[in-house]
Amino acid sequence: MNDQGEPEGMGTKLPMAGSRDVSIGLVLAPAFGEKGAFTPLGMAYLNGALREAGFTPQYIDLGETMRDEDPHLHGELVSHGFSPDEGGFFGPELDLLLQIGRRDDFEDAEFADRILARAQSDVDAMPQLDLALLTLWDSNLYYAAAIGQALRARGTRVAMGGPSAKLTIVRDLFVRLGVTDLIVVGEGEVRVVEMAQAVAEGRSFDDIGGCTRLGDDGRPVETEPVRDLRIHDLPRASFEGMATDDWLPIITSRGCIRDCSFCTERFNWRRFRQRHVEDVLDELEDRIARYGCRRFEFNDDLINGHVRWLERFIDALLERNLGLKWTCFMEPYRLSPELIEKIARAGCTLVKYGVQHLDPVMLQVVGRGDEVSEVVDTLRTTADHGIRVSFDIIPGHPNESEQSHAVNMRLLPEVLEGHDLLE
User: In terms of DSSP bridges, do strands 182-184 and 248-250 run parallel, antiparallel, or are they unpaired?
Assistant: First the structure.
């Protein structure tokens, strides 16, 4: 066992490196990020894995092009791909996906026609690819399906993965529609290298584990599951060839220590895995040297999953004195005023806290602690130290009573009162 409680021998290691002459595209389909101002860290990990193995993938951000050339269509994809501001039920629109994948079966599909036409134009403008890799979110399923279909029509082998690939219905539908050769479930760093090697050697994808593909009988087939990588065996994420903004994303962990009823994090990551402090610090210094960037977004679901780890990390960050500005996600528990003060001195400018509710009964229902006073004190103490605080509240939970909702409405003004940095 290591100091994070993780068995040292668990996981799968990356394939051996070697030079390959294969044209690979890392294709980012819109809509990813409502305003597009996000650098996809998952793509950067795939980029790093492929480059370590001797491949040179091309990063193709179709959202950036669409925002410039067809902002109206991009806006429509955002409205269909993200939950409405007023709340309510939200999920992928099956009829639209079917219209894209089986256009000839529908008479009137004006929106699907515009998506398909734009996707074909995007593919026509791409270099010829041997392998295209697309990441799936609920927000980009429609355009990813259209792009995959157009790429396969011109002979490119297509593989998809990502958060929405965890949903069986998405995997089965996409392989049945023929918009992808296979869909990877879980971490893709090993599998993308295996696929690239298969393309380089003229082999099929039949031996790729942990994925869904179409069987000989025309039905989806699940291949043998694969184990998660040891987090210490992950390749270093690479932003080479990728457009980046002013803040670079980084992670110190994968997964979450909790299993909240409203969240998919445990569904996406089976267990919480924490990187070594020195490894994270070395990566930060490497990012500074490579990109001249000293502003970072820690994209962990919560950076304080192990508070003792966070204390060691903050102390080491202060000791190295890198002059960073950074943001992170945390839960508002187990954070002493002394630790929050050090977090502020270490350069943190924004903490996004997962609060969810201010009623102890509802906190227990969703799977959190029940000490509201600790939550409120943490929010206000963080703001007192000059750190901007953003926190979320989830109204309308299926088990929320009128009384619980009233607690939120009563306490929220008290929490926000007198603190401009709280939102």
Answer: unpaired
